[in-house]
Amino acid sequence: MRFSRPLLALGLLLCSTWLVAQELKIGFVNSAKIVENSPQYEEARLLLQNEFKSRESDLVAKQKRLQELEQKLLKDGPGMDAEERGRLEKDILSRTRKLNNDRAAFREDFNLRRNEESNRLRMRIGETIREYAKANEFDLVVEDGVVFFSERIDLTDKILKELGAN
């Protein structure tokens, strides 16, 4: 029993020396650069743009019509009879509420879809980084929050190349 502790300590010392002697392969990835420059990001941006184009055009048209009615009220309002002016004011108020509700729904739907696409992209990037790291026998790959890194370990452009190839 007395010999086991010194032998254990010697074994741990030899293992730690061996670990220090091993060369660690470390890489850094700038995830923001990858997201912004990946072809998948551009695809997602275009997909969202196309998906929401008609709703956005509809909102613009409603806003334009509302402005036209407001201009009519300013221009012709003083000459209108009270009933006609009241109908126009109610119409403007109703359209304003509807437009505000439509805008809020648009923003909510757009943000949900953008988050879905963003999560899908981040998962794809993470998988590509892991595959690259395994294939190239990296011991550690870090991203973001790094105070300093050498260009020698920066894998960002290599990961972008992998994403472009896929």
How are the elements arranged and paired?
Layout lengths: L3 H18 L4 E4 L1 H7 L1 H38 L5 H54 L4 E4 L12 H10 L1
Parallel strand pairs: 1-2
Helix pairs in contact: 2-5, 3-4
Task: Tell me what you see in this structure.
The protein has 166 residues and is mainly alpha-helical. The protein is 77% helix and 5% strand. It has five helices and two strands, in the order αβαααβα. The chain has a two-stranded parallel sheet. α2 packs parallel to α5. The mean pLDDT is 88.
Summarize the structure.
With 166 residues, the chain is mainly alpha-helical.
Order the strands across the largest sheet as they lie in space: 1-2
Number of helical stretches of at least 4 residues: 5
Look at the structure and give the CATH class: Alpha Beta
SS content category: mainly alpha
- Percent of residues in β-strands: under 5%
Largest sheet: 2 strands, parallel
Radius of gyration: 31 Å
**Could you name the CATH topology?**
Protein Binding, DinI Protein, Chain A
Q: Which range best describes the helical content: under 10%, 10-25%, 25-40%, 40-55%, 55-70% or over 70%?
A: over 70%
Structure summary, number of beta strands: 2
What's the average pLDDT?
A: 88
Distance between the termini: 59 Å
Report the uncertain regions.
none
